[in-house]
Amino acid sequence: MRIEGDAGFYRPKRLSDAIRLKKSLGDKAMVVAGGTLAVQLLNKYLVEPEAIISLEDLPLSYVKMVGRRVEIGATTTVAALLKHQGLPQALAEAARSIHGLALREAATVGGNLMAPAPSGDLATALMALDAEVLLRGSRGARAVPLSKFYRGALQYNIRRDELIYAVRVRRAPNFSSFRKFTAYRYSGPTIASVAVGLDLDRRRIRRAAVSVGGLTTHPYRATAAEKALTGREPARETFEDAAQRVADGVSITHGLYSDAYLRRLASVLFVRAVEKVMS
Amino acid sequence: MRIRFVLDGYEVEADVKLTDTLFRVLKDRLGVRSVHFGCGEGSCGACIVLVDGKPRYSCLTLAASVDGKKVTTAAGLRVDGEIAEIQRAFVEHNAAQCGYCTPGMILVAKALLDQNQNPTDEEIYEALAGNLCRCTGYVPIVEAIKSLARR
Amino acid sequence: MDEFALLGKPVRNVQLLGHVTGETEFVDDLSFPGMLWIKAMRSPIPRGRIKKIDTSKAERVPGVVKIVTAKDVPNNYHVNMAALGIGPPDEPVLPDNEVNYKGEAICLVVAKDEETAAKAAQLVDVELEELPPVLDMEEALRPDAPVIKPWGLNAHIFGSGLDGATPRGGQGRPYFLVKRGDVDRAFESADYVVEGSYLVPPIEHAPIEPHICVARPEPGGRLTIYTATQAPYFVRDNVAAILNIPPSRVRVVSPSVGGGFGGKVDPEFEMQVAVAAMAVGRPVKWRWTREEEFTVSTVRPAVKIEFKDAITRDGVIIGRRARLLHDSGAYTRTSPYGVIKAVFNLSGPYYIPNVYYQGYCVYTNKQPSSAMRGYGVFEVSYAVELQMERDARTVGMDSLEFRFKNAYRNGQVSASGKVIEDAYIIETMREAAALASYPLPPHLLSMSSWG
Predict the structure, then answer these.
(1) C122–A45: do the CB atoms touch at under 8 Å?
(2) If you average pLDDT over every residue of chain C, what do you get?
(3) Reduced to 3 states, what is the DSSP secondary structure of residue B33?
(4) Do C294 and C272 touch, CB atoms closer than 8 A?
């Protein structure tokens, strides 16, 4: 079955067609969701694709919430996401932190997962919610934990014939939050961001997820901080101790700010993120 | 490829290349004055248009994507020849100096008030974060928007 | 105010309606039949000697019309304010031998559209022999520094008529000098000597409209240049000079400018566009990218100012020595004018009878600097006011009182020998204190600019 395209521009209406196009065109095609990053490459004459696969017509703009389970289609824009009440708090805070109405109408959740620092605020938040990336390819569908999705800088656990079709949070924790620090008060690139997801009660933190964005190309899980939280009492000392560990064992790749500053910033953002549960 | 779309109320056609952005087509092919080049990377907002009513960076939008859609610039906000309320508010509050950021600023201001009739200062600054102005210092722009708030 | 028609009345900017409807015309709105686009191939290094320019691959790109190099320029070397006597012309339109800053345009590709020009520019091969650059002003002034100017010094020569302010045949110095009184005696009799060193970084104007220019050849060897400029006559003079044609054959049209702030005072690229237009005989357009705007377009200069003040026990500044370094970048352009302005203002609005001020216009292998809001004075004001704070604290005097005490009075003579006639600083400070609800003691309130 021929997929309609005009001079190399494809706007598939079905995911299966998009996948087939990606497989057959391979490196000749550029995949575009909102275009906030991909089209920049065109403007700067950095790439010269022979074909473009635009995802805009795919039925992937949706938010499904059932209890604490959330599934968000890959082409859902930040603007569309913000129309929904009841999102896990970390995700809602991350989406609200993306400023500028025009950016919100173009930035997609799927694109944000792949965007390198200083972008990727949603990815940071979703990582602390133990999100999974839902992929579909010519061989079927699979789910990859977001914490395992990044293989290296701009290297993803995604096959040549696969597309991200959604991101899923199986069970949002009972507390989550997201804090970021930008170059300017209302705008500017994210210097660092921290997201926290905790399953806790008055006596114990049963599960902890801490993710950090901005220090490395893609967000990472701060496992040392998580170990310092899990099973412990949700007391101020516990959180302050964990705050010191959010950048443990991480080789920082940020170009513009010093190592020492970024480590300190990450720990400050962590404390701000857990302020509510600390008090 | 040939695309057809409605621009500020007029039906237009253009031959576009695969990699042409909407900005390129509007400015260099169609000679549209009410979009401006500032950065080519979606930071400054001088190129912002409405696509089917939603603010979009025309420099980050592929021309081919707007086939069959409605594109509006600041030049297309007149109703029965009268400028829109937001445009009048900008004039009254001196919310422009060189005018280069203004067309994009107007559209985002309008989109904000369409969604939120009574924005706080913080909501205004957040909404306009993708529109840079090097002349006014933003205050008269915020005042112009607040003057239209309906409590 | 009632008898005035305009004074004291709010007046609307006539452009506002065009701005809010997007109807205001900027240069980028201009397009002509047959118009071609320019992109530059720029130097990747701050200083080097050009060994070879290979344009063969670029020329073969379909849609490329011409590649313009130094040999296409009738009169390659220029300096912005030559008409005011500033010299020598040290800047090439396109380099024929050496490149002196990272980003300097080595050649121009003229093609049917922007994309083609950009891609072809990427295919130009230039062989450069790297030379040691000077990137710091103090280093540039050291005797062992690499010299980047043909007259043997990394500093502009003032005093011999080549600065636009002094007569020819005078003594040349590598700095602009303003002196008055006897500064050595002042330091001998001072009760306090206060030193301070101040640095102002370069600042990019970042107008939302980048540099954009269209040039159109006209019949009879004429040329029209449409450019967003703050100084059409600079454009005209320089374009005419490098094309070797009378200025009357160059028409400069400046539509609305999308922000200048001083960054569109120097003709930075109009000469290149003019050469390209004449070379191809067709209208040409150049739209700078934001990257070019940041890394190539002029910036406010980095300035270093060192003060040494001689102060009496009563808090009167009786002498000041100052040394100012102004980073001109790779080429002269308007910098001598900026230095002269700066040096004349090193006293600030304060009376200092004995002064010795030296201002250096230093060349470094960086993007050339130029005017920005309050050129030459802004950076000096910053340093002067901080120095006043230092002085006041050393003397143990309230810093406002220190300023009242030292402010110019009418009838005093400035460092440049001018009799002060319009001093109003004391009254202004009183007004400002009142508006800020800051109470002033009676002895300050009774001070006046008239004695």
Answers:
(1) yes
(2) 96
(3) coil
(4) no
- The CATH code that applies to domain C176-203+299-445 is 3.30.365.10
Q: At residue C225, what are phi and psi to the nearest 5 degrees?
A: -115, 120
Q: How far is CA C227 from the centre of its chain?
A: 18
Sort out which chain A residues have CB atoms less than 8 A from B111's CB and list them.
101
Q: Does residue B21 sit at the A interface (CB-CB below 8 Å)?
A: yes
pTM, 2 dp:
0.95
- Chain C stretch 53-72, residues whose beta carbon is closer than 8 A to a beta carbon of chain A: none
Tally of residues, chain A = 279
Domain borders along chain C are: 27-131+205-295, 176-203+299-445
Mean pLDDT of C84-104: 94
pLDDT score at A254: 80
Any C CB within 8 A of A44 CB: yes
Architecture of domain C27-131+205-295: Alpha-Beta Complex (3.90)
Question: Does B41 reach chain C within 8 Å, measured CB to CB?
Answer: yes
Pairing mode of beta strands A63-66, A5-6: unpaired
Of the candidates C228, C227, C234, the one whose C-alpha atom is nearest the C-alpha of residue C84 is C234
pLDDT < 50 stretches in chain A: 1
Measure the CA–CA gap between C53 and C72, rounded to whole angstroms.
14
Contacts of A62 (CB under 8 A, 6+ apart): A71, A72, A73, A76
Do the beta carbons of residue A168 and residue A134 sit within 8 Å?
Answer: yes
The number of C-alpha atoms within 13 Å of C212 and in the hemisphere containing its C-beta is: 25
* Pick among A77, A101, A112, A186 to test the B interface (most B CBs inside 10 A): A101
Report which DSSP code applies to A136: E
Provide the pLDDT for residue C84. 83
Interface of C with B in 236-275 (CB under 8 A): 256-259, 261
Closest CA–CA distance from residue A50 to any residue of chain B (Å): 8
d(CA C116, CA C63): 7
Give the integer Cα–Cα distance in Å for C445 and B53: 60
Interface check for C291 against chain B (CB to CB < 8 A): the answer is no
Q: Do B125 and A6 touch (CB under 8 A)?
A: no
What the block records as the tokens of A49 is 């694709």
> Which chains reach chain B with 3 or more Cβ–Cβ distances below 8 angstroms?
A, C
Q: Judge if ipTM > 0.90.
A: yes
What confidence score (pLDDT) does residue C1 get? 56
Structure tokens at B45: 């907002």
Cβ–Cβ contacts within 10 Å for residue B139, how many? Answer: 10
For chains A and B, what is the number of CB pairs under 8 angstroms? 101
CA nearest neighbour of C16 among C250, C349, C256, C302: C256
Residues of chain C positioned with their CB less than 8 A from the CB of B99: 15-16, 18-19, 24, 256, 258
- Does residue C180 have a pLDDT over 70? yes
* Per-residue pLDDT, B151: 63
Assigned token pair, B30: 């169609």
pLDDT band at C184 (very low <50, low <70, confident <90, very high): very high
The residue of chain A nearest to residue C291, with distances taken between CA atoms, is A44
